[in-house]
Model the fold of this input.
Amino acid sequence: GSVFRDKSGLAWVNPYSSEVWEYLMEIAAQAVAVGFDEIQFDYIRFSTDSGMSKVDFGPEAAGRDKEGTITEFTAYAAQALHQLGVPVSADVYGIIIDSELDASIVGQDYYEMAKYLDYISPMVYPSHYGPGNFGLEHPDTMPYETVLEALKKSQMVMDQAAEADGHVSSQAIVRPWLQDFTASYLGEGNYIPYGYNEVQRQIQAVKDAGYDEWMLWSAANRYHFKE
Done:
C-alpha cells in the first residue's frame, strides 16, 4: 500500500504504466521545445533493489515481461520524439550485452532496443566487471582489454541477432560510456588510478573494436582528455 523506494530512498515510476510513458514524453517534448537537440534516457530499466519481489505493478503488468516492456517503451519513445525531429538515445548496462540473466532482471534487451534507438550507450566501465570477466583477473586494472572485449561482444551480438532475423535490421549507433574515475571502492589490487593514459587506452579500444563514438563519465565532472 506504500510507494516502493530503493536503498537510496528514491521512488521509482512503474515501467508498465501507460500514464508514466505519457508523462515521460511530456517532459521530453518540453526539453525539445527549449532547444535540446537529442533526448538521451539515462537508464530505461527496472529497479534491482531488494524488495522488488513484493512490488505490485498493477493490472497493466499482467502477461508482460520486463524485457518486452522496456523494448515497447523504447519503440514508443522513439516514435514520439522522432516526430519532433530529434534523435533518441539510451544508456544500458554493459553486462546485459551477452548476459540473458542480467538482461531479464533489469529488462534491457540490447539488440531489440537498438532497433528503435538512434544511439545506444552501453556502460562498459572496466570497474563494472568482476574478477574473471573476459578472462581478465581484475578488469579495472586492464582498461584497454576490458573495453575491447566488451565491444567485441557488442558487435557479435548485433551481427548474430541481425542474421537470426534474416536481414540486417536498422540498428542504433553504438556510443559507449567510458570510465574516467578511479574505483578505489573495489579494494587494493582490484583497481588502478584512472587518468589521461587510462582514458586514452579505452578510447583506442573503442576504435579497435570498430566503433567511432564514445562518452566519458565522471561523477565529479573532472575529465582527463585532450583533443
